[in-house]
UniProtKB/TrEMBL annotation:
PANTHER family: PHYTANOYL-COA DIOXYGENASE, PHYTANOYL-COA DIOXYGENASE DOMAIN CONTAINING 1. This is Phytanoyl-CoA dioxygenase family protein. It holds the Pfam family PhyH. Keywords: Dioxygenase, Oxidoreductase. Gene3D superfamilies: q2cbj1_9rhob like domain. It comes from the Bacteria. GO terms for molecular function: 2-oxoglutarate-dependent dioxygenase activity; iron ion binding.
Length: 239
């Protein structure tokens, strides 16, 4: 598993949580979203990827809103894999997000690297995307460019959402990573990735955790979150 991650910049871990756990998390996610004031984080440039009107529902720092997410981010099934990914027994939280792509109109994300949004010095930063329901291609699953993490940080276009040039990095050329409820996708923050429009009749529900080796210092003081610095596994060495 870790060899595949090192080579490709991502790995899909099948059944990291059970279908029953995923279903329970999905219910809590949608209940939480229904309680919050609706904010659509769709990138402006995403409007260029489709002719239909699309939208997203999301929430930052989800663990401060519902305990189910607090339990997930310290679950050893997750943190043990996260430790392998960052190459350290110590795993530190950067931030969390919920994303719901509504049925028939879930917004896409153009191709990008997460590193453009919160660069770090050692590039151990990675993401884990928990799938709380199935994510086939028609639901706008994540799409990746395997091995692109080895190119290092790439220049991004700031206008419209910090994305890679659309003509050089078309979403259609990336590999879809279809997933089932309970699967977790781990990806390097240097991996070029995006996601398509949800054209299906069902919502796509995911929970994203960004994490790092605590010795990997930010290269810039950006993207602060309430939970940033929380230790998910091990301890924070003096740095």
């Amino acid at each position: 598993m870790i060899d595949f991650y090192r080579e490709n910049g991502y790995v899909l871990v099948k059944g990291l949580i059970t279908p029953e756990e995923a279903a329970a998390c999905r219910r809590e996610t949608h209940e939480l979203i229904s309680r919050l004031r609706a904010v659509d984080p769709t990138w402006a440039v995403a409007r260029k990827l489709t002719e239909r009107h699309t939208e997203l529902r999301h929430c930052h720092d989800a663990q401060f809103h519902a305990a189910v997410f607090s339990r997930l981010i310290v679950d050893p099934r997750f943190t043990d894999v996260a430790a392998e990914v960052v190459g350290s027994p110590n795993v530190q939280l950067h931030h969390t997000k919920i994303f719901v792509k509504p049925a028939e109109r879930g917004s896409p994300f153009p191709m990008h690297q997460d590193a453009a949004h919160f660069p770090h010095t050692r590039h151990t930063m990675a993401a884990a995307i928990f799938h709380f329901d199935d994510a086939p291609e028609e639901k706008g699953c994540v799409r990746v460019v395997p091995g692109s993490h080895r190119r290092g940080p790439l220049p991004h276009v700031e206008e419209g959402g910090w994305h890679l040039p659309l003509d050089e990095w078309p979403l259609s050329s990336a590999v879809p990573v279809e997933a089932e409820a309970g699967d977790v996708l781990f990806l390097s923050y240097l991996l070029v990735h995006g996601s398509g429009v949800n054209t299906s009749g069902e919502d796509r529900t995911t929970f994203l955790v960004q994490f790092r080796d605590p010795e990997d210092e930010p290269a810039d003081n950006v993207h602060r979150s309430r939970g940033q610095g929380m230790m998910l596994r091990g301890f924070a060495p003096d740095v």
